[in-house]
Structures are given as structure tokens and as C-alpha cells.
Amino acid sequence: MRRAVCPGSFDPVTNGHLDVFARAAKLADEVIIVVAINKNKSGTFSIEERMEMLREVVQPYPNVRVDSFMGLLVDYCKANEVQAIVKGLRAVTDFDYELQMAQMNYRLTGIETLFVSTNPIYSYLSSSLIKEVANFGGDINGLLPGPVQERLLARVAEAKK
Ligand code: PNS
Questions:
Q1: In a mutational test of the pocket of ligand 1, which residue from 33, 44, 54, 72 has the highest number of ligand atoms less than 8 Å from its CB?
Q2: pTM (2 decimals)?
Q3: How confident is the model at residue 161 (pLDDT cuts 50, 70, 90)?
Q4: Would you state the pLDDT for residue 160?
Q5: Which helix (H) or strand (E) holds 32?
Q6: pLDDT tens, position by position, 36-74
Q7: Which domain holds residue 46?
Q8: Per-residue exposure over 114-136, b if at least 16 CB sit within 10 Å of its own CB, e if not
Q9: Residue 26 and residue 127: Cα distance in Å, rounded?
Q10: Which CATH number does the domain housing residue 117 bear?
Q11: Is residue 109 in some structural domain?
């Protein structure tokens, strides 16, 4: 069985992430979307909320499931018999950091990282930019999966009460 992970913070998952998951699902027998738990960062959504939203949006893909991890990604991959990390590359600005992580991860355990080129219609998207636009009342239609957009707008409204 060829198993891959798509790691990230996913705070929250965007349409750009979803495009990468769909493409990874065609490359591997099983894809695990893994939410990194970072004790030093609280985030807009809790880890459980992020996982709930991810589970909802990956429902159409039977070979995709959702999990979380704390610590090194390579340790998670070893423990779960994962052969590859799949990441989306949006633009050249992602490249330095992503290459650095891929090389470090390869050095640590020999795991391969596969990059998929993000669909150009999503290449400018990031969770933090979408949250900033939403916070200031800008139009975020089409940037997030429907249920995620609803939850983000509700979270923004709650914070303004
Ligand atoms: O969505 P993000 O925040 O850009 O994802 C970054 C993430 C979670 C993939 C990266 O920070 C990570 O793998 N963290 C786990 C800790 C780890 O393995 N660090 C060494 C990376 S070489």
C-alpha cells in the first residue's frame, strides 16, 4: 500500500488545500491529512475544529482520512508506514522553505516529498490572508469550501460581539 501524508496547520482548510488533497488522492492508495499540533500557537480554530472541517470536506474522497500529530512529521510517517509527503507549491516564494523542509525530512529518515503545482486559480490563497480579509469584512466567496466559509464568518462575527 502506497500511503502519503498532506501535512499542515489548516487553520482553516482552503480550496487550495482541497485541490492538493484531490490530486494526492490520485497518486497514493491512501492519503492522510495530518494537522500539526503546535503548542505555541493557539490559532483561530482548535485542532478538533480543524479536523472536523477537514473530515467534512474530504468526504468525497474514499481514500483520504484525517489525523493530527505532535512532534516531528517524519516520526509520524515512520510510525504510520507513510512513504511520501505531498505538498502544494503555490509560487516561487514557497520554494525556499519547502525545499529546506523536504531536504531536512529526507536527511532524517529518507522520506520523499512530492510537490504538486497549485492550481493557478488558488495560487494566491493562504488561510491567514483569507482570515484577514474576512476580519475586515471583505468578500471571501469561492476561497473556502462552503461549510468552512460559514464557520469562519461565524467565528469572525463572534469575535466582534
Ligand atoms: O501549514 P503550515 O503551517 O505551513 O505547515 C507546516 C508544517 C506543519 C508542515 C511543518 O511546520 C511541520 O512539518 N511541522 C512539524 C514539525 C517538524 O517535523 N519540523 C521539521 C520540519 S523539517
A1: 72
A2: 0.96
A3: confident
A4: 87
A5: strand 30-36
A6: 999 998 899 999 999 999 999 999 999 999 999 999 999
A7: 3-123
A8: ebbebbeebeebebeebbeebee
A9: 24
A10: 3.40.50.620
A11: yes
